[in-house]
Design brief:
Layout: H1 21-28, E1 32-36, E2 39-42, H2 44-63, E3 66-68, E4 74-76, H3 77-83, H4 85-88, E5 94-97, E6 103-106, H5 111-121, E7 130-139, E8 154-164, H6 167-187, E9 193-196, E10 206-213, E11 219-223, E12 230-232, E13 238-239, E14 253-256, H7 263-270, E15 278-285, E16 288-295, H8 302-309, E17 314-316, H9 319-324, E18 341-345, E19 353-357, E20 363-369, E21 379-380, E22 390-391, E23 400-414, E24 426-428, E25 434-436, E26 438-445, H10 446-456, E27 458-459, E28 462-463, E29 474-478, H11 483-496, E30 502-505, H12 511-521, E31 525-529, H13 531-536, E32 538-543, E33 549-553, H14 557-568
Parallel strand pairs: 3-7, 16-18, 18-21, 29-30, 29-31
Antiparallel strand pairs: 1-2, 4-6, 5-6, 7-8, 8-26, 9-10, 10-23, 11-12, 11-23, 13-22, 14-20, 15-16, 15-17, 19-20, 23-26, 24-25, 27-28, 31-32, 32-33
Helix pairs in contact: 1-10, 2-6, 2-10
């Protein structure tokens, strides 16, 4: 492609709202065009890169027996009502009626549609297992779209669904998709960290997130440097250091604390560390009020709490509800609470004295003792793991918390969507008896993966694409319009173009503009032809990711490039593969 004929319009500066590197460089490099908040058009360079990513995904999924389909974005609401997600998902799911008043949704995922498809065609054990996948548009009415392609309202997603005769067969297949994900991300130039994750609205018996460590990531995950344990912070389990029991428990007493509300103020007022306090948070779980009580040095994990309660909707309790229960917002405590479910974190142990809210304005309680001053009927791990907590898996090393971007998510759905009270999908086994179909589900956001690559591979000058997904492999920059220079550039463009994807910068711009644009759009290898180089029969080669520059005789250029591209090819060796045995 000749640059002079290409639809590429780079920007010197990005719009003010662009903050993350990927957002800035995708806009400046003419890869995307913003239509509205969370809505982007892919320009030719962006489209080419995305198509490269799709090609990698297709190759890896086809290699493990996947078959590609395409399902509609507009779904009948009745399917989503069968699974309950029409009612359980909030405003993120766009609902509408057509001209005949029939209800529809815009699909944010396709479990209902693919399960309905399987119900019609999977009849016998001979039809199983099978894995179907698509790369399709998804719609999510994101409340706060941000960071360019990292959080959007419309996006392309690879979603795959596997169907199995039983859980054992799903367990056998799951490592194959897990390992395919590792290869997909590695081939895109990314080192992903698989972590244990919560299944959320997808449901199921287990899941993994594949995280890219990044300073601009919205997610947090836990890593153990000793044994390799990894999990989402809201699901991770750590060893909670217990407090030393009090030898002679003191009597509980009320303490007036006017104007003392924050934990920092309370610590100063009582002269006690955070772990000596009880932190009580009120929620509404599927319409019923519940108190979550954790030690003051922990935070409530909403994910763990919702999982323990088996709650679909979990929100903070409004003040009105608390006042009706005789509780005072800002001074909550488990002491004296009656007729309300209270869940205590496992870090709250007997024998230690605590400071808690007094359930009255400007009042706290001192010397509060579990078992004496309040009854612990329900205990569960409902707190988030902290930096420095000891690993529960190996018991010794301190856990580290990292920020990251979620590249993909895999789920063992089980029978959530095929159950009798859902889509009711069965098959006949060898004896002619009906059995419940078991499912798995696996997703990758395509544009998010593109943005993640740029978050990893960039410098101050712009993007540094891996060869595997770069819109072009080579950018040929012609510096100067002398006939000899033009002739050499045209000769190289014609010769190399037969084997490599080349963007030929034939514009009449200054050398400075051309070289800056080459760095900005991040093509892996830059070739420069100039009057000086033409006289000596040489070409300048720059490798974008490393900054390495070398001068190569034109006669040796093809062999040199072959060696360079072989060296730049991302490796899929030594990945943390899951045992497929």
């Amino acid at each position: 492609m000749r640059y002079s004929q290409a639809f590429i319009h780079t920007l010197f500066e990005a719009p003010k709202e662009a903050e993350t590197p990927s957002h800035i460089f995708l806009l400046r490099g003419s890869f995307v065009y913003p239509l509205a908040a969370g809505l982007y058009s892919l320009l030719p360079l962006g489209h080419r890169a995305v198509e490269k990513i799709k090609g990698i995904i297709r190759e890896e999924l086809d290699a493990i027996g996947g078959m590609e389909v395409t399902m509609p974005v507009v779904n009948p609401a009745e399917l989503w009502k069968k699974t309950g997600r029409f009612f359980n998902i909030g405003e993120e799911l766009i609902r509408f009626k057509d001209r005949r008043e029939r209800e529809f949704v815009l699909a944010m995922t396709h479990e209902e549609v693919v399960t309905d498809m399987a119900k019609q065609f999977v009849r016998s054990y001979r039809d199983l297992p099978v894995m179907l996948y698509q790369i399709q548009t998804k719609i999510r009415d994101e409340a706060r779209p941000r960071a360019g392609l990292l959080r959007v309202r419309e996006f392309q997603m690879k979603d795959a669904y596997s169907f199995h005769p039983d859980f054992a067969d799903l367990d056998v297949y799951y490592p194959r998709i897990f390992n395919a994900y590792l290869r997909i991300f590695a081939r895109c130039g990314l080192k992903s960290t698989p972590i244990e994750a919560d299944s959320g609205i997808m449901g199921g018996s287990g899941s993994h997130e594949f995280m890219l460590e990044s300073a601009h990531g919205e997610d947090h995950f836990v890593l153990c440097p000793a044994c390799g344990y990894s999990a989402n912070t809201e699901k991770a389990v750590g060893v909670k250091a217990e407090r030393t029991p009090c030898a002679e428990p003191l009597a509980m007493e009320e303490v007036s604390t006017p104007g003392v509300k924050t934990i920092a103020d309370l610590m100063g007022f009582f002269g006690a560390p955070e772990k000596h306090f009880l932190k009580t948070v009120a929620y509404i779980a599927d319409g019923s009020p519940v108190l979550a009580v954790v030690r003051g040095d922990f935070n409530v994990s909403v994910t763990k709490l919702a999982g323990h309660l088996k709650a679909v909707h979990l929100d903070y309790a409004p003040e009105k509800t608390l006042l009706e229960k005789g509780l005072n917002p800002g001074f909550l405590s488990p002491v004296g609470v009656d007729g309300m479910r209270v869940v205590f974190d496992t870090a709250i142990t007997g024998g230690a004295l605590y400071i808690a809210g007094g359930n009255a304005p400007d009042m706290h309680l001192k010397n509060v003792l579990a078992g004496r001053d309040f009854e612990v009927k329900e205990r569960a791990d409902i707190s988030e793991v902290r930096e420095g907590d000891r690993c529960a898996a190996c018991g010794g090393a301190e856990l580290r918390i990292k920020r990251g971007i979620e590249l993909g998510h895999t789920f063992k759905l089980g029978t959530k969507y095929t159950a009798a009270d859902s889509m009711d999908v069965t098959y006949l086994d060898g004896a002619g008896a009906p059995n419940r179909v078991v499912m798995g589900c696996y997703g990758i956001g395509v544009e998010r993966l593109l943005a993640s690559v740029i978050e990893k591979w960039h410098d101050e000058g712009g993007m540094q694409f891996p060869v595997s997904i770069a819109p072009y492999q080579i950018i040929l920059s012609q510096l100067g319009n002398q006939p000899e220079v033009v002739a050499m550039a045209e000769r190289l463009y014609s010769k190399l173009g037969a084997a490599r994807e080349i963007l030929y910068d034939d514009r009449g711009e200054s050398p400075g503009v051309k070289l800056k644009d080459a760095d900005l759009i991040g093509i892996p290898v830059r070739l420069v032809v100039s009057r000086k180089l033409e006289k000596s029969g040489e070409v300048e080669i720059k490798i974008r990711q490393t900054g390495e520059v070398k001068i190569c005789p034109e006669s040796e250029l093809e062999a040199t490039l072959e060696a360079i591209f072989k060296r730049l090819a991302p490796s899929i060796e030594n990945l943390p593969y899951m045992d497929e045995g």
